[in-house]
Every structure is written in structure tokens, then in C-alpha cells.
Amino acid sequence: MPDEVLSQSEIDALLSALSSGEMDANQLKEEEKDKKVKVYDFKRALRFSKDQIRSISRIHDNFARLLSTYFSAQLRTYVDIDVASVDQIPYEEFIRSIPTMTILNVYSVAPLDGRIIFEFNPNIAYAMLDRILGGKGNSVNKIDTLTEIETTLMSQLFEKALDNLQEAWGTVAEIDPILEDFEVNPQFLQLVSPNETVVVVSLNTTIGESSGMINICIPHVVLEPIIPKLSVHYWMQNENPKERKPEEYESISRNIKKAPMNLSVVLGKSSITVEELLFLDKEDTILLDQAIEDPLLLEVDQVPKFFVQPGKKKSKIAVQVLNEIKGGDYDDE
């Protein structure tokens, strides 16, 4: 067990107590001899660090935002989803915590091994179904009598939401989630052993006037290959942009070359008063600040780029480039 590090204020308080006689040094020695025992429940093994749990929470914060947008568009009503908690518990405890009859979607997440569970509270599931069928989003708890049509509609809605899960996890792993099973009784689902540690992400969900929870159960065996990527160190490393491949550079260059630009040649400039402007008439002459022997300025999207001289090419007005303006400097170098 690592030694506990005291802060400066705690050290000062301890020295003050010893000097004033409030604490006996011999008493401290006796306390040090006593072995400090930390209770550990082997049935509730903590296999994820706090750092990894925070990373999972951050991923699903993003997933909740994407899911809110998706369901709002599909159901055409107000949908608000946010992460309520992220816990690691035994699989058996998760199964006992959800209703006896509920909506369970089982997904495979290739190339990762194992499967994950999405549990939709009946209030939420039937509010969604009511909206799909043209209702106001009212919830009717009759899970035990799901019809084939209801099952199909729900499955299609949940299956289309998988793109959001794939996008949310894209920063850590490229997964391809596929809906494999649709159940209403959790007792029929035995994904892993009862004592296997799972991460349960609970999402507060509000659809119109109905509210409930969406629980995501992710077994440890699924996340085991990518656990190193759930650390802060990995996230900080990946903040730096990756080096592009040669073919990517070529593709970007090819597309940039096709981008249109506006070219304009400045013949000269002049400034006049408002009074002079009001009395301008036909055949009046305005003097420009451009000498006839000096080169003209060519601008690319209003940014000075070249010095040019006017002329003609095949009976069309044209300009010939003389020099490039570097760094936006108007002076000829």
C-alpha cells in the first residue's frame, strides 16, 4: 500500500499538536504499528480504474448528445438524454436491478469480443412507439404483450441509432455494432458469468412528457483489448494531429487546385469629396494615383499577390505577371 502524503497544512497542524502536548508521540508510534486493513469484496471486483471510468463517461456524454439529436429527428418531439452515472458492478447485480419485463437489445461490437446490452425502460420504449405511430408520446406499460409489428418497429428504431454509438466510440476504437437479439425478459440473457464485472452507463431520458432510464451494460471482456486506450495519457497523445499519408496529401492538393478564386487587377485609386461626387457629370475626368509607367496590382480574393502589366492577347484584355508580392508586401522586391 503506498505511503500517504500529507499536505503542508496537515504537517503544520501535526507539529503544533505535538508541541502543545495535545498529541503524544508514543501514541503515534503505536498507531503506526497497527496494520491498516482495507475491506475488499471479491464478488464486486473493481477492474476499471477511476481514470478509465471517466473516459467511458466522457465517451457516453458524446453518445447521449448524438442520441438526443437522432431521437428528436426520428420522433419529431423534444428528447433530452444525459449521463446519470457510470458504475462497475457484477453482471448478476445488473440483471437484478432492471425490471422483470423490459426492452432489451443485444448488440455485437466487432472486432471486439462479446456483446453489450441496451436496456430501455418500458416508459421510454412505449413513448417512442406511440410517437412513431402518430401519437403524442404517451407511455403504456404492456411489455408482456408485444406484437410482432411493435417488435419490428422498435428494432428498426434502435438499429438505426447504432451509427451514433459507432461515432461516439470512434476516438477510441473502430467498432461495427450490429443488433443481434431483442428480448423482454432479462432472465433469458446470460451474456457472461454472474460475477463478471460489467460497466453500467445509465442515461436519464425524457421524451415529451415521459421519462425513464436507458442502461448500457458493457462486460469487462468486451473492453479488455482497448483498456489502455481509456487512459488520459492515450487521449493526450492523440490530441496531436496524425501524419497524413502521401495519397491523402495528393487528394487534398488535387481538390485545392480545383477550387475557384476571384482575380482582380487594380487600375488605380483616387479619393474625392462628397461635394465633388455630387457634381460629377458625363465626360468628367477622375485622376488616379497610378502612374502609367508603374505596374498594376493583381489581387487574389482581395489579397495583393502579383505586380502585372496590362496588354492584349487574341483581342482580349489581359495582364502579364511581372513579380510576386511576398508576405502581402506591396513593395517590389
Automatic annotation (TrEMBL):
Gene Ontology CC: bacterial-type flagellum basal body; plasma membrane
Domain Flagellar motor switch protein FliN-like C-terminal: 255-325
Superkingdom, taxonomy of origin: Bacteria
SUPFAM superfamilies attached to this UniProt entry: CheC-like (SSF103039), Surface presentation of antigens (SPOA) (SSF101801)
One example of a Gene Ontology biological process annotation: positive chemotaxis
GO molecular function term, any single one: cytoskeletal motor activity
Membrane topology: Peripheral membrane protein
This protein's record includes keyword Nuclease: no
Keyword Lipid biosynthesis: no
Signal peptide: none
NCBIfam families from the UniProt entry: fliM_switch
PANTHER family, per the entry: FLAGELLAR MOTOR SWITCH PROTEIN FLIM, YOP PROTEINS TRANSLOCATION PROTEIN Q
Identification of the protein by name: Flagellar motor switch protein FliM
Gene name in the database record: fliM
